[in-house]
Amino acid sequence: MGRPRLELGTAGEIRCYQLAPKKWRARTLYRDYDGVVRPVERVGSSKEGAKAILKKALRDRARAAGGDENEVTASTTVGEAAAIWLKELDESDKAVRTKQTYRDSWTRDLETAVSGLAGLEVKVALATRVLRKIHKDAGPGSAHHAKVVLRGVMGVFVRHDVIESNPIAEVVLPQAGKKAKAAAKRERMKLEKSELAGLRAHLRADKKAVRRDLPELIDGYSALGCRTGELLALDWTKVDFEAGTIAIEGTVIRVKGVGLIVQPHTKSEAGMRTVMPPKWYMDLLKRRHAESTSQWVYPSSTGTLRDPDNTRRQLREAVHKSDWEGLHPYAFRHLVATELDAQGLSAREIADYLGHENPSMTQDVYMNRGLANSATAEALADTEPDD
């Protein structure tokens, strides 16, 4: 039986020969990526030195032949593969906030735990222990992000044929318990139309809430049903008073080392929309525009971009120990959807107004979407605040 053929990009045993007192030659056979086996040798001042020089030459030869500066082999560490994956992430068209979230997840939760391991050492059991510890220490949200990141990193090894399948696909994380689900449900409480007047009165009676512009933010939420970042990204160029429409085409995010910016797209493609809100809200914006000294419809106290996280926190503080304890901006999306449905609008029209994903594939294929619809303005007319 003949000697097993070398795999592409691999070398055989290195043999060393002394040529002089301080001169050694290291020689081996290397199978290039064209399938041809060729001898490769290097000379050094010692046996080990010659071996080291030859190994470096073989590494450089593999990189040059493969045309890939990011060669991944069985000895590549998870940290090195992570650098490749993070670079690919930066070059992708994913949202800026998504890129930042995944990079932070690697740095905060995974780097110390797995970066020194070789790709072949990351088995299902090991990955499960790592991710379940993150789940226990940092919560299900962090564990979910860490799983996405680690699956992407291990995918680098799969693509380079170092491993056959991705072990992270088999990792099972704990499901949220009943208490956690109940807490999330309480935070995202439903808001009835009949409660709006009381909520507005509560906020208008709170000097701090008024100073923070919360009463009029509530009007924006209840008229548009949009996400907080979308609402705060509105500038006056997006408001067409003549047509009675508002273009929702971005969201406010915080970028590490930069600060607050408007990401020029929403959470999904469906979120890029032009809506026709109720007349009372457009009238409110006309008055607000006349008084405004900022380019933003809902600016910070200094006229700059307003922070979504701070805004949500301020709302929580304003309703603390009130009948609206735990109120989340999501409740206004639910309220708007409920009102539009009660007025007989189709699921399609409601999805367009809120910027949800397609209600169904059929609607997506055969109907236009994202167009201003006067029916929504009429349906939300009776959510107008009392004077």
UniProtKB/TrEMBL annotation:
This is Site-specific recombinase XerD. InterPro entries: DNA_brk_join_enz, Integrase-like_cat_sf, Integrase_catalytic, Integrase_recombinase_N, Tyrosine_recombinase_XerCD. Pfam families: Phage_integrase. Belongs to the 'phage' integrase family. GO terms for molecular function: DNA binding. It comes from Saccharopolyspora antimicrobica. GO terms for biological process: DNA integration; DNA recombination. Keywords: DNA recombination, DNA-binding. Residues 186-381 form the Tyr recombinase domain. PANTHER family: INTEGRASE_RECOMBINASE PROTEIN MJ0367-RELATED, PHAGE INTEGRASE-RELATED. The keyword DNA-binding applies.
